Amino acid sequence: MSVSSSALQPVQLLEDNSSEEKGENARLSSFIGAMALTDLIKTTMGPKGMDKILQSQGREGNLTVTNDGATILKAIYLDNAAAKILVDISKTQDDEVGDGTTSVCVLAGELLREGEKLIDQKIHPQTVIAGWRIAAEVARKALISVARDNSSDTAKFREDLMNIARTTLSSKIVYSDKDYFAGLVVDAVLRLKGSTNLDYIHIIKKAGGSLRDSYLDDGFILEKKISVGCPKRLENAKILVANTAMDTDKIKIFGASVKVTSPAELAAIEEAERTKMLNKCKKIIEHGVNVFVNRQLVYNLPEQFLAEHGVMVIEHADFDGVERLARVTGGEIASTFDHPESLQLGSCKLIEEIMIGEDQMIRFGGVPVGEACTIVLRGATSHMLDEAERSLHDALCVLSQVVSDRKTVLGGGCAEMIMAKAVDELAKQTPGKKSVAMEAFSRALRQIPTIIADNGGYDSSELVPRLRAEHYKGNSTAGLNMKNGTIGNVEELGIVEAFRVKEQILISASEAAEMIMRVDNIIKSAPRKREADPRMGGY
């Protein structure tokens, strides 16, 4: 029986310039990408983590100095598929709980590092995944068992919030003033009365002074000036917030041309525009308001007319500011003014112009939504202010989750060691190769305190085994004291973290590592062909 030569030719399945990695090569590529990304950001972990400088390649060459994992990962361009998965889980962590963006990426990377060793031992990926799933579940149960809820005792719960804020801020640029800033963010979050809506907490950055000059204002501050001819202070304000054109005292007819044969005809058009604008202003006044805030510009004619009728005018308020202002004053954003009875007006007890540094701003005090407040950040440089804002945002997100969930766990590597111990104990009772995967999961968890100790310049090979021994002796409050480089009682040291953050780190990291472990084939599509442009001579 003869076989045709064409049947022996390899069949091209993929398009030209496409690439494919199979089996061990694909798995190795995924592991290397994930571990490289982990090594990049793990030096930022812990209270003594280092910062990264991110510089754009644009004409301006913008600089960002940060140790926030999510910020770093968003800024770097990646070509490795597994590394992109870690970036996605870091973004999810940031969206869900606001903190732990570095930890989740590092734990996933360490799991994959351990997974690579298991693959080298000829353990099938599905066996590894099965062991990891058992380990993740027992680790989560161990974390739940040590979680605490002190919400019934107001004083104790506030102290927990202060400790969580200090722990969160201890790895940030505001570390030297963490007690002061912890008080700021706790006071701001407690004003929300259990809500997780951080829109009511406005953060303003103004260069000048020192970080210690930052403060919490119990009103809403808008970064604008009051218009000319209006009073600079007003009590019992009725506020109309609008997003409408107030510049039609100028001729503005788009997409058309108007031909006139005499100055009188031009004057008639201008008069018609002027009358139209004055009618609009009269409708605004009929609402019975004494403050008009508009997102768009307010030109001279309507500004003067409203001021003459006792209405304070605030123009060109940014969109975020207008939305937040409407929310905190209890009003609605209007664009037409034909039905005053159907429009909800905002109100506040006092509007005044204040100075922050060298800039004039408007403060709305006594707003109906008592949760609203403003944190005013001061600092030497814009880079410092940006990083301080990211730090406070993380702390606010974590605290809002704690106020909602109310559970806390001990930090300083204590929670990781408790989970690792629980996984180890179950692994000893589990037959087969799954127990090897569970032991690998336990080693990955212990890498978190190892990295924290290394970043502080301490000997992790000495500290972490001592910490492990303390936990096996039954000392479940033992953790790393990064101030002295010793093992201490983290409960007495006040190193407390949010349960929700730790739980999300565990779940997200294990799921991402499992997803990458399943990969045995990577296919890259061919780049899109550029069509010849006849306008460029066919190039």
Which helices and strands occur, and which strands form pairs?
Layout: E1 19-22, H1 23-41, E2 52-55, E3 63-66, H2 69-75, H3 81-96, H4 101-120, H5 125-146, H6 154-169, H7 178-190, E4 201-207, E5 215-217, E6 220-222, E7 233-242, H8 263-285, E8 291-294, H9 300-308, E9 312-314, H10 319-329, E10 333-334, E11 346-356, E12 359-365, E13 373-379, H11 382-405, E14 408-410, H12 414-429, H13 434-455, H14 460-472, E15 478-481, E16 486-489, H15 490-493, E17 496-498, H16 499-517, E18 521-524
Parallel strand pairs: 4-13, 7-8, 7-10, 8-9
Antiparallel strand pairs: 1-18, 2-3, 5-13, 6-12, 7-11, 11-12, 14-17, 15-16
Helix pairs in contact: 1-3, 1-4, 2-3, 3-4, 3-16, 4-13, 4-16, 5-12, 5-13, 5-16, 6-7, 6-11, 7-11, 8-9, 12-13, 12-14, 13-14
User: What percent strand?
Assistant: 15-25%
Number of helices: 16
CA radius of gyration: 30 Å
Q: Please summarize the sheet with the most strands.
A: 7 strands, mixed
> SS-based structural class?
alpha/beta
Give the strand tally: 18
Residue ranges: pLDDT <50 for 5 or more in a row? none
Portion of residues within helices: 40-55%
Would you tell me the overall average pLDDT? 84
Shape: elongated
Q: What's the N-to-C terminus distance? A: 53 Å
Q: Could you please describe the fold and organization of this structure?
A:
The protein is of the alpha/beta class and 539 residues long. It has 16 helices and 18 strands. Strands 6, 7, 8, 9, 10, 11 and 12 form a seven-stranded mixed sheet that branches. Strands 4-13-5 form a three-stranded mixed sheet. It has a two-stranded antiparallel ribbon with strand order 1-18. Strand 11 and strand 12 form a beta hairpin. Helix 4 packs across helix 13, helix 5 packs across helix 12 and helix 8 packs across helix 9. It is elongated. The two termini are 53 Å apart. The relative contact order is 0.18.
